[in-house]
């Protein structure tokens, strides 16, 4: 087990390093930050001076080595825009992203699990058809469009909730629902197909032959086995949402990490982009590790192979 | 003789499939007495498993559908019983042992939990009582170090051991009737012999009535009191083991027995094989389902279903569904009956 964990951590470090490297070189391609930071009509000398100040005049390899070295000390450099440590800027936005994604995941998982179960247990009925149509629509609807429609209807027409912004629960409702629609559709569809597969398994027949109550069979014999792939999906979605749901955060003016990174890309604020992406990569890796461990809890065969 | 434990009357089961209606079980009737062991033999698709599963509501419905019949267990009709009452019977009064313990046990639950489930459901036991009973059961079916092994998962057991666990689950609540569906088919011969010994021992100790479903005539010979040969969803022949093996009256039984390897036959001639293919149960049947493969079939066999009747000159209870007279036909061909 310890050996397994160590391997996983090593893998994670390599993954994060890979992401850091790619981000470093990609940001260097997208343009010249000094030209953007200085007012229009700045002279070439002024641009060179700023580049020297930001350390962008040195050879790329030298920049890269310095950068990696600093990252290992937890230093992502100063934000070009804000003049403060880049990681600090990113972390300040984390609570908003965390709040939104947690709300969306919980809401989406609960509704998705119930809807998926209904669709599987009531196979061939109207209930299944309705659930599946909504799930398909939910998965296919672009998030930005749904977000705008929700704003138009609930915020502009009905005036029940604010159109955007951050602060109270009422600010959270629309963006959380927008994201939850996608989450719950994906989970409902996956869970339904898994449940239908598991319901055909011989061990479910054995459970019925034991005379167990339908509820016991569903929770212990069907549900648990059908959940294993769903856990993976929840993990992947969580990773995506925690990395900041760029579109939703932008539509609802939600001050999260996703929106920050978009702003940083526009401003060519390299340190913030790098810090943001590094954080997202780290979260992803952490969640993958958590899923792996959860697998072991759900399925003893996987636990044993370690 | 006392009232039968199980009485099946005119049971017919169909499956509604996109290709049409499959007539899986056709008008099956028989009785089973307390303490009797019934071996049901037949090839895949003969309806032997489906008829047993349909009796206790274990055939998925849809696509399965019970068209007609009565199944009286201790005098009560199982087919008319509400699901709640059936649930009480399953695993309690009626135990099951399924084929392929690899897939019939839940891979993510410990053997302990799977064994305790029927005990907690049907017996008024506390968790700790159920736990110790579960260990007893594992010991009873011959699993060494039961106390430690019970906490393991099915994949940590060998095939034979898993089948033993399956049997322990089947007999957990001392069922009146134990239905074993191809319980030894997935096992190699030595393990199969051990499992059969175990079942014989359990029968002797608890007087359990057993329905043993298999395609293996050899297993039936060693275990059953009564043999019931099924084909195309019908009973072709039924009776005490002795007469059936000595003087089979159905050409299908005769064919099954001839295709068993005998001591001398092994070296002298090729094993017999029944010509043709199993019937397509999609079409509604006319006549004896075995007629197209039957070298002794008479013209009547092809358009009229033979009733299952007592063989005139054989032991009481030896029934056959055939229009032809097998011993006579064999004598005419100068062949031994089996």
Automatic annotation (TrEMBL), chain A:
Gene Ontology annotations of biological process type: transmembrane transport
TM spans (from-to): 12-31, 100-121, 133-156, 168-191, 212-237, 277-298
Location in the cell: Cell membrane
Keyword Transit peptide applies: no
Signal peptide, first to last residue: none
Annotated keywords: Cell membrane, Membrane, Transmembrane, Transmembrane helix, Transport
Protein's membrane topology: Multi-pass membrane protein
Domain of life: Bacteria
SUPFAM superfamilies with a match to the protein in the record: MetI-like (SSF161098)
Residue ranges of every copy of the ABC transmembrane type-1 domain listed in the record: 94-295
CC per GO annotation: plasma membrane
Similarity field: Belongs to the binding-protein-dependent transport system permease family.
PANTHER family recorded: DIPEPTIDE TRANSPORT SYSTEM PERMEASE PROTEIN DPPB-RELATED
Protein name: Glutathione ABC transporter permease
TrEMBL record, chain B:
GO biological process: peptide transport; transmembrane transport
Gene3D superfamilies in the cross-refs: P-loop containing nucleotide triphosphate hydrolases
Compartmental location: Cell inner membrane
Keyword Transferase listed: no
Topology of the protein relative to the lipid bilayer: Peripheral membrane protein
Keywords: ATP-binding, Cell membrane, Membrane, Nucleotide-binding, Transport
Domain of life: Bacteria
Pfam families, per database record: ABC_tran, oligo_HPY
Gene Ontology molecular function, alphabetical: ATP binding; ATP hydrolysis activity
Boundaries of every ABC transporter domain copy: 8-257
Any single Gene Ontology cellular-component annotation: plasma membrane
Main location: membrane
Similarity comment: family membership: Belongs to the ABC transporter superfamily.
The protein's name in its UniProt record: ABC transporter ATP-binding protein
Originating species: Tianweitania populi
């Amino acid at each position: 087990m310890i050996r397994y964990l160590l391997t996983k951590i090593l893998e994670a470090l390599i993954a994060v390093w890979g992401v850091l490297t790619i981000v470093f070189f990609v940001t260097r391609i997208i343009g010249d930050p000094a030209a953007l930071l200085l007012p229009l009509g700045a002279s070439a000398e002024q641009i060179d001076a700023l580049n020297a100040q930001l350390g962008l005049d040195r050879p790329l390899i030298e920049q890269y080595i310095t950068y990696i070295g600093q990252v290992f000390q937890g230093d992502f450099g100063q934000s070009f825009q804000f003049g403060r440590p880049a990681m600090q800027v990113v972390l300040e936005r984390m609570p908003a992203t965390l709040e939104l994604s947690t709300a969306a995941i919980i809401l989406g998982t609960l509704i998705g699990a119930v809807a998926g179960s209904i669709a599987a247990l009531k196979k061939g009925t109207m209930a299944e058809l309705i659930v599946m149509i909504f799930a398909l629509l939910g998965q296919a609807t672009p998030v930005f469009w749904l977000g705008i429609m929700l704003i138009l209807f609930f915020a502009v027409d009905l005036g029940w909730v604010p159109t955007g912004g951050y602060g109270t629960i009422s600010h959270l409702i629309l963006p959380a629902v927008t994201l939850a629609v996608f989450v719950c559709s994906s989970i409902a569809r996956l869970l339904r197909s898994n449940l239908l597969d598991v319901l055909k398994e011989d061990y479910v027949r054995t459970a019925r032959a034991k005379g167990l109550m339908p509820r016991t069979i569903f929770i212990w014999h069907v549900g648990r086995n059908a959940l294993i792939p769903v856990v993976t999906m929840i993990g992947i979605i969580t990773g995506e949402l925690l990395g900041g749901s760029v579109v939703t955060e932008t539509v609802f003016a939600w001050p999260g990490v996703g929106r920050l990174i978009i702003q940083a890309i526009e401003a060519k604020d390299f340190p913030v982009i790098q810090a943001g992406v590094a954080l997202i990569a780290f979260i992803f890796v952490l969640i993958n590790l958590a899923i792996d461990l959860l697998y072991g809890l759900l399925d003893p065969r996987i636990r044993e192979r370690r | 003789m006392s009232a039968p434990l199980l009485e099946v009357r005119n049971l017919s089961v169909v499956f509604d499939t996109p290709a049409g209606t499959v007539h899986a079980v056709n008008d099956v009737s028989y009785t089973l007495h307390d303490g009797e062991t019934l071996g049901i033999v037949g090839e895949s698709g003969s309806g032997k498993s489906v008829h047993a599963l349909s009796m206790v509501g274990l055939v998925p419905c849809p696509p399965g559908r019970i068209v007609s019949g009565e199944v009286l267990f201790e005098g009560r009709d199982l087919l008319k019983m509400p699901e709640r009452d059936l649930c009480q019977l399953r695993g309690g009064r009626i135990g099951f042992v399924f084929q392929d313990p690899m897939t019939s046990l839940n891979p993510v639950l410990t053997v302990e939990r799977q064994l305790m489930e029927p005990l907690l459901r049907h017996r008024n036991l506390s968790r700790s009582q159920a736990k110790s009973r579960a260990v007893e059961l594992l010991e009873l079916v011959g699993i060494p170090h039961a106390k430690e092994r019970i906490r393991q998962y099915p994949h940590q057991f060998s095939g034979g051991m898993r089948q033993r666990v399956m049997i322990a689950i089947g007999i957990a609540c001392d069922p009146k009737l134990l239905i074993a569906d191809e319980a030894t088919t997935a096992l190699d011969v030595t393990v199969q012999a051990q499992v059969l010994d175990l079942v014989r021992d359990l029968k002797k100790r608890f007087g359990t009535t057993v329905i043993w479903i298999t395609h293996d005539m050899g297993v039936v010979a060693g275990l059953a009191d009564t043999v019931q040969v099924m084909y195309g969803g019908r009973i072709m022949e039924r009776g005490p083991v002795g007469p059936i093996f000595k003087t089979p009256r159905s050409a299908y039984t005769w064919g099954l027995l001839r295709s068993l390897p005998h001591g001398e036959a092994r070296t002298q001639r090729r094993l017999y094989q029944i010509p043709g293919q199993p019937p397509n149960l999609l079409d509604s049947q006319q006549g004896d389902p075995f007629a197209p493969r039957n070298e002794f079939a008479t013209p009547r066999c092809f358009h009229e279903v033979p009733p299952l009747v007592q063989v005139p000159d054989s032991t009481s209870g030896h029934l056959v569904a055939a229009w032809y007279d097998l011993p006579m036909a064999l004598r005419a061909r100068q062949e031994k009956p089996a």
